[in-house]
Automatic annotation (TrEMBL):
Active-site residues, as the UniProt record annotates them: 2
Family from the record: Belongs to the asparagine synthetase family.
Native organism: Trinickia dinghuensis
PANTHER family: ASPARAGINE SYNTHETASE (PTHR43284:SF1), ASPARAGINE SYNTHETASE (GLUTAMINE-HYDROLYZING) (PTHR43284)
Name of a matching Pfam family: GATase_6
UniProt keyword annotation of Transferase present: no
Residues the UniProt record annotates as site (Important for beta-aspartyl-AMP intermediate formation): 365
Swiss-Prot/TrEMBL GO biological process terms: asparagine biosynthetic process
Listed name of the protein: asparagine synthase (glutamine-hydrolyzing)
SUPFAM superfamilies referenced in this protein's UniProt entry, alphabetically: Adenine nucleotide alpha hydrolases-like, N-terminal nucleophile aminohydrolases (Ntn hydrolases)
Amino acid sequence: MCGIWGVFGTDLPSDRGERAMRSLYKRGPDLQASYVEPGLTLGHLRLAIIDLSENGSQPMHSACGRYVIVYNGEVYNFEALREEIGDAYPWRSHSDTEVILAAYLRWGEQCLQRFHGMFAFALWDKQTRSIFVGRDRLGVKPLFFHAAKSSFAFASRPRVLFDLLPSLPRELDRQALRYYYESGYIPAPYSVYQSVSKLEPGHYLVVNEQGVTKHQYWDLAQVETDERLERADEGTLLDELDELIDRSVRRRLVSNVPVGAFLSGGIDSSLVTALMVRHAGGPVKTFTIGLGGDRRFDESQHAQAVATHLGTDHRCEHLEPDNLLALMPDYLEQYDEPFFDYSAFPVMAVSRMARREVKVCLSGDGGDEAFGGYHYYRLVRDIAPAFGMPSSLRRGIGAILQRVPKHQLRLLGGALQANGPIGAFAFMRSIVKDAVDIQSPALRGSTRSMAQLFEAYSEALPRSLGMVERSMRIDSAYTLPDDYLQKVDVGSMAFSIEARDPLLDHSIFEWAARLPLKWKLRGGVNKYLLRKLAYRYVPREILDRPKMGFGVPMARWLRTSLREWAEELLHGSADFDSLGLDRTKVHELWDAHLAGRREAHTCLWSVLVMLQFQNGIAVG
């Protein structure tokens, strides 16, 4: 895991490269180095995990001297690829970085099809003066870039692009603002800046003096459900899934530094930890944050029960929720694109704790999207039949529900007002829901909604997919990479720790995508098959509990600890119009939240983060 950056098409003054190194330092504190030739500079910051010798350092040159690579991430099957390539390449290291170089020499751009892992890399060809830029299939590792006629720049974080190219325009992208206010994140290829793009998961770029071309090499959207599995034997499927996840965990244990696990006590992290224990050479170190004062946010007792059953060397740091506010400056600095997901606070806290003992931690991310874990999926399943009735009747029912006192029924009414089931899913996933009017009419009139984005993506999915499967594919394409994986990548790298996600192996996602819905949702049970597999390793009575998530008491914080900061932003000199916000509506929502008439903390937090991003008010 590292930080990478580069500029092509112009000579880079050394002081700019130095600024880029400082901005990315926490991603690679072990070694910083660069490669320079006329019209090109590549930079790399190393967090040494595999082949700790100088031979594993970057920028790395191919044995023939023609190619140079800077690379962030891990290709977990590198040893198998190295064996396949064999003596055809004169190996000089034991790193996965060199395997990427050798694989490119052997298979060209098709090498991406052979990698199992998380990665973002740029590979320079001195002979053709071109750059091959690739990103992993599910978007675990980030890659931001700027492309213009005369220059191209890329980096692991967007702020670095402005270190490299100070004259880069900073105008905000209004479409990105719309998506952010509705979802709390900005989906690729958009970024908050018009001049900066994100490379989408499963894509690569070819950059040369003629320009930039983008290609897609993997697309989960096109995987069809295998209806024959409707009648499959459950035990056989469990054995197949067991083997897939077990192989993925084994691959992610390859390391020359200590490896631990983030353990929440839920289905996914417990299963990953159980398989890790099976293969580890000694006691597995597991890490959990315990949040006192509010049991709604404290998973520590569940994690302890799993750790005791599995016999791990368990660590739990007990914090009061307000202790997490000490991470506020780090949050605002490290998440250098507006990002609303405040569960990043406990992610940062557990990463900080784990870094005292390990450099790598396995996590359970990905199980919900692949196997149907979120409660939204049951809601979508239950509400979908309503869209078969006449729209006037459905909307009439929705309008009635929106006038009842109970908040949940009002939200159900809002979902029924959508144009279709995909729109209803977008409404459920939205962080604004019935507060959409905080966006200015001008912004809403000139941009498209997340519902429209989701609907366009749904059109490209196989016609055979039902509504729940469509929702899961949408989450895998947008919410997973641009919210959850961004949260973990930035939050863990803020403390120089590598987070590895066994359930995000593309072979697991492809296998799960072929499963009929009955193996994911069955009655009121989410993640049916994955849950049954977890029961093989951890007793049902330990695992069966309501899903909690990794949360903080933001509603209370905004009324107490963060109130002064928030009001300084809301009533200061911020330019609401340029951000596409209606100042009056935002202030009304804030007053309703303070008075306890609304629990509007998710929406308000996203606005406050955007205001902080705009004017840079210091946090006290």
